[in-house]
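Data follows
____________
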Amino acid sequence: MSRILIVEDDALLALDLAQHLERAGFSVAGRAASAARALSLLAQSGCDAAILDVHLGKGQTSEPVAEELLSRGIPFVTVTAYSHEQRPPVYSSSPVLSKPLRLCDLLAELRRCLGLGGGPG
């Protein structure tokens, strides 16, 4: 079962994503509302893939998490309301989904990133 790290500062959205991922057959490696928490979870238990919201509130982004994931070769899906021009370059190699999210698109991208096929969720 693939373990997914959720990096999202909206607690309700993170909880909703976790529930949908588990129903779709994934395991949630953890939820983090800050880059520091996400990096701590990565150091403790790792993950197979991640979902990263770019903007985490209070002027913070998930950019350090994206850099760590890239250095470990762990795929991630970026979710954001930011335009391409507003996103830091570290996100350019990952699939990007716009908010509000369509769950079927997110599940398909995660499966594709993990080599599990991209069928609808």
